Amino acid sequence: MMISEEKKKEYLEAEGMMCPHCGSDDLSWDAMEVSGFDGSSWQDVECNSCSKAWKDIYKLADIYEDD
Known about the structure:
The protein is an alpha+beta fold and 67 residues long. The protein contains 1 helix and 4 strands; from the N terminus they run αββββ. Strands 1, 2, 3 and 4 form a 4-stranded antiparallel beta sheet that branches. Strand 2 and strand 3 form a beta hairpin.
């Protein structure tokens, strides 16, 4: 079952801290993975309440220069 656009929006507004399927906050995250080809990164996420799994996809949002 695909996640609806409405559920995706709710999930992103909650900053990925709740299951887009059942609403639980009991989630587990795997290590972040990065592609060397296009700079994309993703993280596998699983809900411990309903056992659904998905990938969070990340993109560069800012830069901070070390002093």
